[in-house]
Amino acid sequence: MSKEGARYVTLILAEIDVKERRARFINCGHNPALLLRSRTGTLSFMNASCPPIGLFEYENCELDSVELEMGDVLVFYTDGVTEAANSSGEEFGMERLSAVVRGGTSRTAEQLMRDIFESSAGFSSENGFHDDVTILVAKCNFDDLPSPRF
Q1: Alpha helix segments (H runs only) across the chain
Q2: Alpha-carbon gap, residue 74 to 97, rounded angstroms
């Protein structure tokens, strides 16, 4: 991307450590990933901890982390999903995305990914997508792993 002559890129980089049951991430100005807690149904956002890469000469990025529990769902996506617009110019948005994610607790990661794509595509069916659309869903399954030692 280019903003006033500057070149920059947004990104989110995440590492899921299944042994520690923890996700570590850095969000550089990208859309917040969503974390749906299976036990409580709470949806939280993995927000930006630093500006986009290349916007400033030096960036001070902080590594953030969240503990994961059995059944928790992580959803990563590009802005093409939330910015998909209908014929009235209304965007699919975070509220609709959040509703699809909340409704997908019993779905597999693949099914939820498909639900998100189809919901956004259906919402913008008359206009189609005008930006890249990438969706990654990870559903935590720790059945075959020993419990972490704290």
Answers
A1: 79-82, 93-102, 109-123
A2: 13
**3-state SS class at 75:** strand
Both structure tokens of 62: 């902080």
How far apart are alpha carbons 69 and 81 in whole angstroms? Answer: 26
Task: State pTM to two decimals.
Answer: 0.86
| Integer CA distances (angstroms), 17 to 37, 88, 112, 117, 145, in order | 17, 43, 22, 27, 12
pLDDT band at 94 (very low <50, low <70, confident <90, very high): very high
Report the candidate in 5, 27, 21 with the shortest Cα–Cα distance to residue 149: 21
Q: Specify the CATH architecture of the domain 2-139.
A: 4-Layer Sandwich (3.60)
Give the 3-state secondary structure of residue 25. strand
**98-117 pLDDT per residue, tens:** 999 999 888 999 999 999 99
CA distances, 5 to each of 51, 91, 140 (Å): 16, 27, 42
What percent of the chain stands above pLDDT 70? Answer: 91
Q: Give the C-alpha separation, 82 to 59, whole Å.
A: 27
User: What b/e readout covers 46-71, taking b as 16+ CB neighbours within 10 angstroms?
Assistant: bebbeebbbbeeeeeeeeeebebeee
